[in-house]
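Project standup — Tuesday

K.O.: blocked on the structure for the chain from last sprint. Re-posting the sequence here as requested.
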Amino acid sequence: MIEKHKIRPGMLLVRPSEPPKEQTTASGIVIPSTAAKEPSNGIVVLAGKELPSDAHGIQPGDLVYYGERSGQEITLYDVKYRLLQAKETISSIPSKSLKQIYN
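H.V.: unblocked you, prediction finished:
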């Protein structure tokens, strides 16, 4: 349903990775998921057209890494996304490479 939407050039709509579940340290201390740090990577759902000033080449399905405070968190259809500029990404892995790694 979200794939029918359009976004501005140079922008990315990213679905962040799931935060880690409850963890236990080696000494037995339980760290709840609410205290876990937000993930700083996710899969691109929508990508706006490339701007001439920055040719990012990021496509839907690519994995991107971004800074902790990058972009704006939004909720569409009860799902959390992060809307950020392509220039805010630190690194990206094309979806073709992801398929080779995980298959």
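K.O.: great, moving the ticket to review. Strands lie at 11-16, 23-24, 30-31, 41-47, 63-66, 72-76, 79-85, 89-93. Residues 15 and 81 are 5 Å apart (CA to CA).
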